[in-house]
Description:
- With 453 residues, the protein is mainly α.
- Helices cover 85% and strands 0% of the residues.
Amino acid sequence: MTQSKSIRSHAVTMLVLGLPLIGSNIAQFSLQVTDTLMMGWYDVEGLAGMVLAGSLFFVLFIVGGGFGIAVMPLVATYSADGNERQIRRVTRMGMWLSVLYGMLSLPLMLWSEPLFLLIGQDPQISALAQQYLTIAAWGLFPSLLVMVLKNYLAALEHTQIVLWSTIAAVLLNILANWVLIFGNLGFPELGIRGAAIASIVNQLLTLVILVVYARRYLPEHDLFQRIWRPDWEAFFRVFRIGTPIGLTYLAESGLFSASAVLMGWLGTIPLAAHGIALQLAALTFMVHLGLSSAATVVVGKAYGRRNLTELRRGSAVATGMSVAFSFFGVALFLTFPEFLISLFIDPTDPDKPAILAAGVALLMVAAVFQLFDGLQAMGLGFLRGVHDTKVPMIIAAISYWPIGMSASYLLGFTFGWGGPGVWAGLVFGLFTAAVLLMWRFWGPVTRRLAERM
Length: 453
């Protein structure tokens, strides 16, 4: 067994890996925030349509993104063994799976309006959502390929390029939205369609940057030479790990997307407030997600080296960091709710007081689930690091749907709590997932690894 790192060394490693990934996640998420912010200034109905469309796009993206996420623990483990051939094989097949999945998902977005109407959404909002997705759907392909390359690079500790490529995309997104949504610099005023075009431009820019970087700085992996040739063993290896990851995120993201449907039943203003509050809650979650990704790399490398002490110590440090930030998120939402919500609303909008009141109430509930949201993310990251993805998928499905979704409906509609009740149900789902995932990692999984190592 190799010598284990100290707690301080693990903390430094987590920061070196985690900070660029956190920054990248925040920058990536700010693309959505920018769209929401600028569309909110342009038109409240357009904002509601984009929230609805974005919910479907995100669900499809996060399921397909499971193949890209699966690349991270595999590459981390193989890099600890020095097996560069396996690194190349699983990364290539991660790209294969991403493209194939994108082709299967495309029709759901191109003909989404009947689906929105079927689940009871407002016809005008459904039409706007369809306008957005008719264009934005094509961005699913570069988005999924970017997911593969980001996880490949992060597992090899090339995290700076992940951060800077995303920042470049954010800056372009602000300019493209300003030009295309509002019709500046001689361009036509495209509204919600302009936001969709801007998103595709940014996704393509990020993909080009990462491809160029990988070819230049990691030529030994030769990722793109003869990429058209199938490698079925690696294909199914990534598929077996990635499919449960994608379905796990479907369970969680689907819960939040379904909550958007419930909020849509309450009306346009509650749905718009939900979209704003959810953006803010998800922004703080990007920190936990970055720490979770860094923890996956740390745990994956320790797993590859068969060093149980390093695996446990790194996981404990990562958990402590996540809990510490959770308290910061709670303080932020409880102290400045009006200010945060008002950032997303046009000051002259006649609906501003109603949206502000609804959004503030939702942020109060969001403050409660900060801790549980972070802990469930860390539990998933630890388990991915040891290639354990099937049971976490089952845990997530049970926690978020029979528990979380049922509680959201009961509290929001049966008990008449409205929007805050829908969000209170989310707390029950996140709490259950956090407890069960942490128990699995620190209990049966760690004991089983101790026997093997």
